[in-house]
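If your schedule permits, I should be very grateful for your opinion on a structural question. What I wish to show you is a protein chain and, alongside it, a tokenised description of its three-dimensional fold. Would you kindly read the sequence against the tokens and tell me how you understand this chain to fold? Here, with my thanks, is the record as I have it:

===
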Amino acid sequence: MNFDSLSRYRPQALAVLRIVTALLFIAHGTQKLFALPAGGMPGPVDYFSLMGLAGFLEAFGGLAILVGIFTRPVAFVLSGLMAAAYWMAHAPNSIFPVNNGGDAAIMFCFAFLYLVFSGPGAWSIDEARARSA
């Protein structure tokens, strides 16, 4: 099989990665802000706390990533947020991410860092604006 022929779908595959990552990330934010979906958080957090700030960035930054607007700068901020979340909330519990619950934070951190360098891919507002310019 010639995998080189798949390269023509790189922008669409990147868009799928961006969209799925954003949808998962938004759920973390809405869980902090609104306790939706119900589960891991006992209820909405104090909006004027670090967790409130994280929830706001996760929900609304995730929405920006989902539609692909200001993708690179928003992804940079979200990557930093996830790095800080890992070192502040997860790493003190254990050195091993699988034991400290921080594996998702690491994955989000590096997925967003990749978007900083790659851009949004297909099906994004950023791409549509670049084409019309």
